[in-house]
Amino acid sequence: MIPPSFEYHAPRSIGEALSLLASLGGDAKLLAGGHSLLPMMKLRFAQPEHLIDLARIPDLRGVREEGTSLLIGAMTTEAELLASPLVRNKVPLLAEGAASIADPQVRSRGTVGGDLSHGDPGNDHPALMIALDASFVLTGPKGQRTVKADGYFLGLYSTQLAPDEILTQIRIPVPAAGSGWSYQKLKRKTGDFATAATAVQLELKGANVAKVAIALTNVAPTALKARAAEAALTGKPINETSLGEAARLVMSICKPAADQRGDAEYKTAMCGEMTRRALLTAAARAKD
Fold first, then answer.
1. DSSP bridge pairs for 224
2. Cα–Cα distance between 26 and 132 in angstroms, integer?
3. Pair 266, 219: CB distance under 8 Å
4. Contact predicate 137/169, CB 8 Å
5. 30 or 234, higher pLDDT
6. 199 with 278: CB under 8 angstroms?
């Protein structure tokens, strides 16, 4: 289908984009990579009168290191994440997750900020960012505010981003040297959303878990942080007993919706299995 007519705007700065948002109000939508918004417009589920394209704002792109954190512009594409030596060397979990998203064509246009702003539980970045303890810089008419990834996602397609704000930057604390990581994603075919997926960031002390973060994709209306499983693993070795308990605790918080990828029971079981695999892989990569 063809979307209804709209007026196109291409601001060159964050300030110009914010001014357009303020003046156009609810009749305007921000355009990042377009993979979520444009299909909705073609189906007439979304009918904005104005599109504000963020692609020409240089301050919204790029990856750099500042102190102990990695700073990522919200309009940085998945392909740019994968090509970045900083991402690959400093935050390999993010690189692994980005490589699992869709296909090369989508990754060349899709942006990390667009993925996070959409609030789709099937998107991969929410769980990755929660596991990495990331924070998001939201810029609006009153200035900037920073919110944690854990708590940013409120529900299905719902986030803390206000209508007059733009997600401008992602801040990720660089994991400790020797940390292990893994993103295990079950999907039916290349390009598909996850049936279930688990992101793990882990530190070992000797044979035991010193610190672990576990986040889940597409098994609830939002990405989930598996706090009980994290607590159960801390101070324990990664073995069949601890893996089984972690999987059980993870599955206990899953509330997936049945769809063409499977029923709720199947998705829940697969989330438990993805968690086991992610923990085993992360532990194998970790160094005390």
1. 216
2. 33
3. no
4. yes
5. 234
6. yes
